Amino acid sequence: MSHMPYVKPTIIQHINSLANKHGRGPSRHSLERIDGVSLTELLERFGSPLFVFSERRLRQRVREVRRAFDLRYPKVQFAWSYKTNYLDAICMVMHDEGAWAEVVSEVEYELALRNGVPPTQILFNGPYKPLPALKNALADGSKVHLDHYDELYAAEQIARELGRKVPVTLRLNMDTGVHPRWDRFGFNLDNGEALSAIRRLHAGGHLELEGLHCHVGTFILDPQAYGRAAARLAQLAIDVRRETGVPVRTLDLGGGFASRATLHAQYAPGTDSTPPVDDYAEAIADALLSAGFPPDELPTLLLETGRSMVDESGSLITRVVANKRLANGARSVVIDAGVNVLFTSFWYRHDVLPVVDRGGMLEDTVVYGPLCMNIDVVRPSVLLPPLEIGDALVVRPVGAYNVTQSMQFIRLRPAMIMIGRDGEVDLIRRAEELDDVKRAEHLPARFRKS
Ligand SMILES: *Cc1c(COP(=O)(O)O)cnc(C)c1O
Asked: What's the number of domains the chain is made of?
């Protein structure tokens, strides 16, 4: 008599109509098109995975954010944070919408120049600006945000060489109730360092304090943190005016507004828990308008909004490459895009939804990337319908930081396209080839095989 081989039983909890804690059942979502363009057709044309940016969505969002501030404060200028996404096509949309450039390295400074941004419309941040880059930026009239005393001293030497007074901005940090506190950048306001630096700058006679800057952090969910930062920058500006007689012309509140992505630690989805941009605008404008500036000396408000502008315009389209039951019975799928191109997976509970939902029971699923690395998890848990190999999924939002922080770890980076306002589809970065990665290497002659 032959026995059937033993197969370990798997008990699957089917979640069909049970209400969750919000009293809602699991809802089924799928997304076949972005701006009217079929995602299946895009994958066939450009290959998988594929980053898709919606120009329409991006411009809409930029205008929405700008309007929130323009409504409440008369002098506002945005500068696009290059490190959030420096694809040329994205930067050009931003500049076309009136944004200046905010850069944090000499490399990004060069990118902004190549995109045709005049030096006077570049804000230069960061803890390390190599001397030649610092010189050029100061000589060409960029807004240089000094980070520490060594840089202040270097800027002073450069101004002396140039033989004229050079305007600079001081980056400040302070306790705004946000933790962790980003006190490694700029001069501390709480312990008096900021005021000392300003007095030192003024006494040196070579630099002129044009502006004050503060970047509280990133994905800040409390608009009042900006209200507090704005109030303190404004008070300092007024004190400095009284002491030196020179008005501070710009106050820069940095970036950091939360996008509507959902963080792993958040219970409610980001679409419900992220404050509307109006709340940030209200907090900042209120603080500045009530600070007591004479009307003819109202400073220009500079903003370096990154994530909140671009995040939701980006989606990643990917295909299922395997279905797999884990040892504990849990269902998992492997997709062809991993954390090497989805850095935000470590922070975000991205939406992961099928392009086509062919029905069937939703089941809790782990979504793994294709890397041979334990940490390559795109979603630890998400309800998905049955999927077959080759089925396409959408991961979103992915517009912020994934492109700039991606790397060719094991795999090359995928193609990126933009859907234009009239539905036109343009390749904005082709898929990488092995030579792109190897071009910079040099193999010593002794290792070469003849
Ligand atoms: C990264 C950065 C920004 C943009 O931050 P977001 O969180 O993307 O809005 C703005 N200013 C400075 C100085 C930065 O380092």
From this structure: 2
